[in-house]
Write a structure and sequence with these properties.
Layout lengths: L1 H18 L18 E6 L14 H10 L1 E2 L1 E3 L5 E3 L2 E6 L5 E6 L13 H12 L8 H4 L2 E8 L2 E6 L6 H6 L4 E2 L2 H7 L13 E6 L5 E5 L13 E6 L3 H10 L4 E3 L6 H4 L5 E7 L3 E6 L9 H10 L2 H9 L3 E3 L21 H10 L6 E8 L2 H15 L3 E8 L1 H9 L11 E6 L6 H9 L17 H9 L6 H18 L2 E14 L2 E2 L2 E2 L5 E2 L4 E2 L2
Parallel strand pairs: 1-12, 1-13, 17-18, 17-19
Antiparallel strand pairs: 2-9, 3-4, 5-6, 6-8, 7-8, 10-11, 11-12, 13-20, 14-20, 15-19, 15-20, 16-20, 21-24, 22-23
Length: about 525
Amino acid sequence: MKRLVTSLVLMFCMLALVLSGCGSAGGTKKAVSKNGKNIVVALDSNFVSLDPQDTNDNLSFTGEKTMLEGLIGFDKNMKIVPVLATSYKASKDAKTYTFKLRKGVKFQDGTPFNAEAVKFNFDRISDPKSTLKRHSLFAVIKETKVIDEYTVQFKLSQPFGAMINTFAHPAGMIISPSAVKKYGKDFMKHPVGTGPYKFASWTQGGNLKVVKNPNYWKKGEPKLDSITFKPVPEDGSRVDMLKTGEADLINPLPTVQAKALSGKNGIDVITNPSIGVRYMSMNTMKKPFNNVKVRQALNYAIDKKAFNSIVYNGYGAPATSSMGPEVQFYSKQKPYNYDVNKAKQLLKEAGYPNGFQTTLWAGNMSQSIKAMEFLQQQLSKVNVKLKVVPMEAGTMSNKIWGVTNPEKADIQLYYGGWTPSTGDADWAIRPLLGGASFPPAAYNTAYYKNSEADKLINAALQTADPAVRQKDYAQLQTKIWQDAPWVFLSTPDNVYGMRNYLKNAYVQPDGIMDLTHAEIVK
């Protein structure tokens, strides 16, 4: 513990220096150049699948996004933009959605993109018998109708006001029906879409290479000849590749090195707010966390600014809701300011004047362990003795999602995070805090169930009217904030680095990289 306290002091002393590295780049600029139009991107993990409907990780979506496109998508600020659709409209009852499609587009195998191709895709993922990982996102589609060659209509089984944002989710990217029929289950190794780059090669556990699609429908794009993605899990190796030019872009860039690298040796360090949140959930079905005063006390007991400084080196901000500020329908809440005395008073009122003992689960990554140690140190000040248990991902998954009876769940506290890749408040709240989202169905590790909150969750989906949805979600966020099923910790930044000749490459707020417009500038 002495070592941790010393680290905290050193980190605070360095905070002003760290923060000066935030932004596009800092330090002395030195122009560097590159021959050719082929780039290498170093990433921190391996690709899992190249089938968007069967993908559950942002890294795989990053690779897929170079080759595949959706009806609609997100820009760099997570605002919806048309892609393969030119326009769309929603019925007032939020049960019918109609899209007009772009004409003259072909898949990379030469087959036409049209309403029949769209129907094939959404029939595949919405099929009740589907075992695809992203089936739940589109299970609400009852029927996909071809109105004419370039008009498609979706009929839902119930109102779902968040459907437009769901269509923009990368799992909604359109794949070639002919390729799916040709490759069957192996399609995930042979993706075919309409995007600016086409598949060249992939070694599972190794590199993915995509090359320029000469028949891309958008004039003047793409700007590069090829992109090679290299999994490089070790932070130091990834940084060395950026320094030497072996990699043109790395993501993520370790925040502890951001200041030292920014603006040096032709390197730009880029930071932007994410839509992710980090939190510590409390099992509200178990003592002492079934008492709202205990849950509120723990929120007051933890210094969120210090958490962000120590764990994320200042790259981010304390959480101000159960979702990040960039999420659609976000509503800022009154903060739980750091107040040890108030935390102790609430614990006393709850019947725990001498505190209690409990256990915290989290992953075994270095950043998670640092977070757990910080939480342990903070809670000790209010006599809460925290046992921290880092776990390998598979072990933790079994312990949380392998339990079907909430009464038998061993979980007490859980440190984790969530990024709602629809960019909408529904996907930021319902899977995590909805009463029907207990494990293994979804991710409600707080086992939080409140009839008023569930009523607001459902009400916000009954219409596509943004004004009505905004009102419902504002009330919902306030209710959740007051009930405090989580200790609301942080909204971290995305931090990545690239050589300064590379332009128009960026990481979206959801953590997915977009290289579709990337170019090399001499």
